[in-house]
Design brief:
Layout (H helix, E strand, L loop, with lengths): L5 E11 L4 H4 E4 L2 E4 L3 E12 L4 E5 L6 H8 L7 E6 L2 E2 L9 H6 E4 L13 H12 L5 H14 L16 H13 L5 E5 L7 H18 L2 E5 L3 H7 L2 E6 L2 E7 H6 L4 H8 L39 H5 L5 E2 L5 E2 L2 H4 L4
Parallel strand pairs: 5-10, 5-11, 8-9, 9-10
Antiparallel strand pairs: 1-4, 1-6, 2-3, 6-7, 11-12, 12-14, 13-14
Helix pairs in contact: 4-5, 5-6, 6-7
Length: 336
């Protein structure tokens, strides 16, 4: 396979909960103690997104999917690790050095009601990124570009004088997609872009994203919790649990032959027409808190195949015969 367009290496992100220095210090047992706490949102994520594909990242709420998306886009600074774009490290760039990558990388946010500026008309919303990234274009050229991108996402160009609150959720998300496409990006991060929409509108927006990928040769990092969308949209799938990637495979392979115990449980939860659902896997225990991560494999407390090694040693991604990458000692040892 060709070199990746976007590569994430050892990415970590922690959110400090300790507050100021004075808030961290307590007096206990006749001595001063300093207590520091942090939410470990991402814990050593390695991912590669190849040009032209749609890599879907799935997992339950709180597993770190959106944090990965925002860190890749530079909206959050990583606590450790690196983000590379087309061979160039970009997470450490500042000021004007990062501007060329801002144009190449765009993001579609989850909430269409919060992602548009209520004080700006749709025309102003779509013109702003073009003026910023393409200052050489004349005003007429910018207007033409806006009309072109509005038409490409199914928005009437005459709506440009209206404000965001005058549109439905699906229309707003189309506008958000148009804003991302306005600067002709190569790579788009879509953070659950259809989860806030009605099911009938979800299909329209999803088809729009697929059409844009084909016509504009786009590459997607698609964050979602909807497995039906993943099966329809994704080229490859990365399954996350508590800030770690536990399985990475091509979409067809993952749905046909999931290897990690968590992936098997996740796919078994997809609603089926059968009432008895004999293959449903019910996990025991609670999801650990990301403030106090468990030792070893983060899934060992809920895994029926866990042994002492799982409780002590963090598993690394290994490649199986089918090409699937899985972080599981049971798979590595042939117990699963």
């Amino acid at each position: 396979m060709t070199s990746p367009l976007v590569e994430i290496r050892g990415l970590e992100k922690r959110f400090d909960l300790s507050g100021s220095l004075l808030e961290q210090i307590t007096f206990k047992g006749g001595r001063f103690q300093r207590k520091q706490e942090a939410v470990h949102a991402i814990n050593g994520v390695d991912l590669q997104v190849h040009k032209g594909e749609a890599l879907c990242v799935v997992g339950e709420s709180g597993c770190g999917k959106s944090t990965v998306a925002r860190t890749v886009m530079g909206l959050l600074s990583p606590s450790a690790g690196e983000v590379h774009y087309d061979g160039q490290r970009i997470d450490n760039l500042k000021g004007r050095d990062v501007l060329p990558y801002r144009r190449k990388m765009q993001m579609i946010f989850q909430n269409p009601y919060a992602s548009l500026n209520p004080r700006m008309t749709i025309q102003q919303t779509l013109e702003e990124p073009i003026h910023f990234h393409r200052p050489e274009l004349s005003r007429d050229e910018v207007r033409g570009k806006v009309q072109e991108v509005m038409a490409s996402v199914g928005i009437d160009p005459d709506w440009g004088s209206r404000f965001g609150h005058e549109f439905s959720g699906g229309q707003r998300q189309r506008i958000a997609i148009a804003r991302a496409l306005a600067v002709d990006p190569e790579f788009i991060v879509a953070d659950e872009p259809i989860s806030a929409l009605d099911v009938s509108i979800q299909a329209q927006v999803l088809n729009l994203l697929m059409e844009a990928q084909e016509t504009r040769n786009l590459t997607y990092l698609f964050i979602t919790h909807d497995l039906a969308v993943v099966e329809h949209f994704g080229t490859r799938v990365a399954v996350m649990y508590l800030g770690r990637v536990c399985e990475l495979a091509e979409t067809k392979t993952l749905f046909a032959e999931p290897r990690h115990p968590y992936t098997q449980a996740l796919l078994s939860a997809i609603p089926k027409l059968e009432d008895d659902r004999p293959n449903y896997i019910r996990l025991q225990g609670e999801v650990p808190t990301p403030v106090n991560l468990p030792s070893g494999c983060v899934f060992h407390g809920r895994c029926p195949y866990a042994n002492d090694r799982c409780r002590q040693q963090i598993p690394q991604l290994i490649t199986t015969d089918s090409g699937t990458q899985v972080a599981c000692h049971a798979v590595e040892e042939g117990r699963l």
